[in-house]
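Figure 2 data, in text form.
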Amino acid sequence: MKAKKLTRAKDNLPTLFKNWPASKDNDIYLVILYWIAYDGIALKIGGEAANTLANLALSGMLTNPETITRARRKFNEQGLFLGENHEDRASQQVDVKEWAKGA
């Protein structure tokens, strides 16, 4: 399932890069744009809230998501703060690695 989402994201990103060039340099902005364009976040939280998130991302006021998830992975590598879904995430990671080999 994770590999399917990755394939979809891979197909969708060029459109975002073309229409919002700043998304090439700002991961937070890219993620928020993706959520707006493809996951319907504006419908879920409201357009004004989605725009506020995008503006915060562009301003550099938000921590890069990769920094946060990298720190979580470091804890997890040490066996600390493992979530209830740790085993599911680990098996999804294997799926993505297998998908990447075939890409």
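Caption note: Residues 2-19 form the longest helix (18 residues).
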